[in-house]
Amino acid sequence: MRKLGVLLVASILLFVFGVGTFVYEFSQISPHQMDLSQETQTMTTTMPNACKLYTKTYLSSIGDVHVVVDEMVEDDKLQDDALVITYPKMLHVVQDEDQLDIQMDDYEMSKDFQTIFNTFRKKSYDEYFAKNNEIHVSIRYGKALKDKITLVDDYY
Please, are residues 83 and 44 in contact by the beta-carbon 8 Å criterion? Predict the structure, then answer.
């Protein structure tokens, strides 16, 4: 009976030690912040006869973000209904007829065991951020779109 008591106490101590170690290791995981504004990519598309660009969007790992248009100019070298948008690489532009929505691929800690293992092994995960909660883009457009681009400060 005494051996059973000692075995029970030892089991409880090992369990408490294991849980404590897990909590400590989990607390050491820190975000690896990735600046959205560093590198850009360009998308060229044609628009029917007008364009709505949604300038307030929800990006899953950083919350509400406003799209700031740094430059919006008519370009004589472009086809009349062409639109060229330059935006940060971490994003993609979704086009639905005359609507453009800037989005980011959702990042969340995957339920895939390999991803969880890699996160614990390197003790970091990717966390995107935007300075002042803004994403900066520039737009060039053809003659047919002059005064027909609407910036909509709302969710898609």
Answer: yes
